[in-house]
């Protein structure tokens, strides 16, 4: 999966996102066209799908029970980002820049974030014993997703910035009630 993504990013840099085909990506990754679709449903998914959700879930669930859901989620998100290698961070930055610059990718990313919001709702419900329909839980998950989208957009506009520092600062501001 990671190999396919690296080849796709190289081709997107070389030819542009729209001009690059799934066939070209499969050929560059030395896989068949049908094998590509075993890993990704669409060309957009090459940029949007990653293996970080299971790591986030495991890290969140291992946080001490006395922590608030936001503190536990912040700790889980930051620990995941801290474990990324410089190459992974560079790839993430490049994927993020591309996603934020191509309208259809940005729209697909928003859909992906709605799925992430559902995951945060589920994790929060398990931690707090609240129901999925609880508006406070949904607003909480939406706020966390909003922070992530804001950080992604800022990072795309300022690639020299430290992603981990941005994420930590933004989540700390959310935890402090977003004072302006």
UniProtKB/TrEMBL annotation:
Protein name: TetR family transcriptional regulator
Database matches in InterPro entries: Homeodomain-like_sf, HTH-type_TetR-like_transc_reg, HTH_TetR, MftR_C
Gene3D superfamilies cross-referenced by the UniProt entry: Homeodomain-like, Tetracycline Repressor, domain 2
Pfam family, one: TetR_C_14
Alphabetized GO MF terms: DNA-binding transcription factor activity; transcription cis-regulatory region binding
Entry keyword set: DNA-binding, Transcription, Transcription regulation
PANTHER family: HTH-TYPE TRANSCRIPTIONAL REGULATOR BETI, HTH-TYPE TRANSCRIPTIONAL REGULATOR RUTR
Domain HTH tetR-type intervals: 1-58
Record feature DNA-binding region, as residue ranges: 21-40
Keyword Nucleotide-binding: no
Signal peptide residue numbers: none
